[in-house]
């Protein structure tokens, strides 16, 4: 019997916090394969949306930032200093330079979150041909690892 509520719960969790999405699988009494497929589909769906719409999200963020600055200037308020080189940004650039495209494509959606990781990958590597394929392969590998951990190690 299909358990659509369990599948959709894992799918929904995988769209945002992919790293932990497989762990409720055993508690929901669904099989290893059902958990794996739900999580891979959720993560892949979310990464596709955010990867291919990343230009839109970056343009909207820029417009929002410009509107905020214009509003502050029109009100005569001081524009707050925004650090460009935060610890997270430095770490992302370090990983990009040290490990390269494959590590960023495989691990950024896993460790950061699917939306943020996909946008970062698109920002750095959207001009390259197989970038989304590498994200998808990373999703499959990472899901197999986390599902294995959920069913074999932490059960």
Low-confidence runs of at least 5 consecutive residues: none
Rg measurement, Å: 19 Å
What percent of residues adopt helix (DSSP H or I)?
Answer: over 70%
- What is the H/E order? HHHHHHH
Number of helices: 7
- Major beta sheet summary: none
Beta strands, count: 0
The span between the termini is 22 Å
Q: What structural category characterises the helix and strand content?
A: mainly alpha
Task: Explain this structure.
The protein has 155 residues and is an all-alpha fold. It has one domain (4-153). Helices cover 74% and strands 0% of the residues. It contains seven helices and no strands. It has helices spanning 4-16, 32-52, 54-74, 87-99, 101-111, 114-125, 131-153. The longest helix is centred in the C-terminal third of the chain and has 23 residues, at 131-153. The chain is elongated. The mean pLDDT is 89.
Short description, anyone?
With 155 residues, the protein is mostly helical. It has 7 helices and no strands. 74% of the residues lie in helices and 0% in strands.
What are its keywords?
single chain, 155 residues
Give the SSE layout.
Layout: H1 4-16, H2 32-52, H3 54-74, H4 87-99, H5 101-111, H6 114-125, H7 131-153
Helix pairs in contact: 1-2, 2-6, 2-7, 3-6, 4-5, 5-6, 5-7
